[in-house]
């Protein structure tokens, strides 16, 4: 009976995984906090694809506690993870952490001001030659500004490129990562992507 309690104390509940997450990638992400004994991606009810949930079992309660402290709110594949030692109900979506504050047209581009997890970010969308698109994202923080650009064949591809580049920079600076899924939902809601 005590071994079951230890295993339960080591079990973590993870939500907001990107659709292309693999067990190996999740294991590698959590291994930065200590030993990982098991990773289970939870499939949709029809079993066709993962639904963004996983159970990760660490090899000790210390490693589990470290993982919750370090990885809750961390970037993984463009998404901001939720990690807890208690079940996170599947029907409870994380609160929206991206909201569109304002949008307007500037000559040949559109500008969107968003609130992203407490960080004010301005996005500019430009058409470029050859039916391609370029997104530019910048913080409005004058003391520590971040500017990132990305291009793609579609507006969605360009936005994905910006999120990836932003989150790479966020890992090495004090800037918060962007929630790629939340950002895409917000921008799709106003027909920007």
UniProtKB/TrEMBL annotation:
Q: Which residues form the RRM domain?
A: 10-84
Against PROSITE patterns, the record matches this protein to:
RRM
Query: From the UniProt record, which GO molecular function terms apply?
Result: RNA binding
Record-linked InterPro entries: Nucleotide-bd_a/b_plait_sf, RBD_domain_sf, RBM, RRM_dom
PANTHER family per UniProt: TRANSFORMER-2 SEX-DETERMINING PROTEIN-RELATED
Tell me the protein's name: RNA-binding protein
Organism, by scientific name, is: Labilithrix luteola
